[in-house]
């Protein structure tokens, strides 16, 4: 059986929702960051940087959200979480997810982990100060994609990309990393995805049902 290594409210919520949407049988393991579990050799053997998410499969661990999501979509094809039989359509899902992973996620990390980019308090302040500008620029591109009224990122079908965007739209609402008022289509999309039963189940398990309400 699969085991998802996660932290409450972290980006591991993306594969957590994907597993629920897929109807997968899985165990959930919240990594004890406060207790230093992420620093242990045992956890580093699963996730070399000590990060979440990590997915333990019957054949060994898998890290990186984009890869984990693709694996879930292919392992549970009946859930139709991605157009896995269409090379270009699948590549578009990957392209969107990687856009968030390599731009928005990396920018948001500058807030929580500025010392991963540069040393010193002045550098940390400068890195944090840059994030709203970066986030607004990146989210504007997603806003434009949704402007034709499509219900989901890639059109009429729910995919992995909707889960990815949902997570980062919630982080955008935190107030310190870009202006949600500039992207009403993104926020309306967030509300649609929030209403899905699988999402509700995951938010309850992660203790976020109220914080991510609305
Ligand atoms: N590129 C990775 C990034 C994973 C990542 O940054 N995870 C964060 C939580 S959202 C984490 O584990 N942070 C703790 C740390 O970096 O020590 C992915 O998308 O899976």
Automatic annotation (TrEMBL):
Domain GST N-terminal: 1-80
Location of the GST C-terminal domain: 86-214
Pfam families the record matches: GST_C, GST_N
Top-level class of the enzyme under EC nomenclature: transferase
A Gene Ontology molecular function term of the record: glutathione transferase activity
Keyword Transferase belongs to the record: yes
Domain of life, per lineage: Bacteria
Protein name as catalogued: Glutathione S-transferase
Higher taxonomy: Bacteria, Pseudomonadati, Pseudomonadota, Alphaproteobacteria, Sphingomonadales
């Amino acid at each position: 059986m699969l085991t998802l290594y996660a932290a409450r409210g972290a980006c591991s919520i993306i594969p957590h929702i994907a597993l629920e949407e897929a109807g997968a049988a899985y165990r959930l393991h919240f990594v004890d960051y406060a207790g230093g579990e992420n620093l242990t050799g045992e956890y580093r053997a699963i996730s070399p940087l000590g990060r979440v998410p990590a997915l333990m499969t019957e054949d060994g661990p898998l890290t990186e959200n984009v890869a984990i999501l693709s694996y879930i979509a292919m392992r549970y094809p009946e859930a139709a979480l991605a157009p896995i039989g269409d090379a270009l359509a699948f590549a578009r899902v990957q392209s969107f997810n990687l856009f968030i992973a390599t731009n928005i996620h990396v920018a948001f990390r500058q807030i929580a982990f500025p010392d991963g980019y540069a040393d010193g308090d002045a550098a940390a302040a400068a890195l944090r100060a840059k994030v709203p500008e970066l986030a607004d620029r990146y989210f504007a591109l997603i806003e434009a994609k949704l402007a034709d009224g499509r219900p989901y990122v890639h059109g009429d079908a729910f995919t992995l990309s909707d889960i990815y965007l949902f997570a980062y739209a919630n982080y955008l609402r935190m107030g310190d990393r870009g202006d949600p008022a500039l992207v009403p289509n993104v926020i309306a999309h967030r509300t649609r995805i929030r209403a899905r039963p699988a999402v509700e189940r995951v938010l309850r398990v992660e203790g976020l049902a109220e914080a991510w309400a609305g």
